[in-house]
Automatic annotation (TrEMBL):
It comes from Dyella mobilis. This is DUF465 domain-containing protein.
Amino acid sequence: MDNCNEFAPVYLRHDLMIEIGRLEMAMDHLVERDATQQQHLRPRLESRMSHLLSELDHLPA
């Protein structure tokens, strides 16, 4: 039996959760930027967050 394959979803979930946390922090710090930068960055961050949450939802439980 290949233990590496058994742990792969756990590692992937962990990596996704870390990246989601980084995005949440980046979104929290948007208020420190000027309005132009906020308008430019917010859609990109929200799109990335949506993608990561979707990936997380598709992982096996």
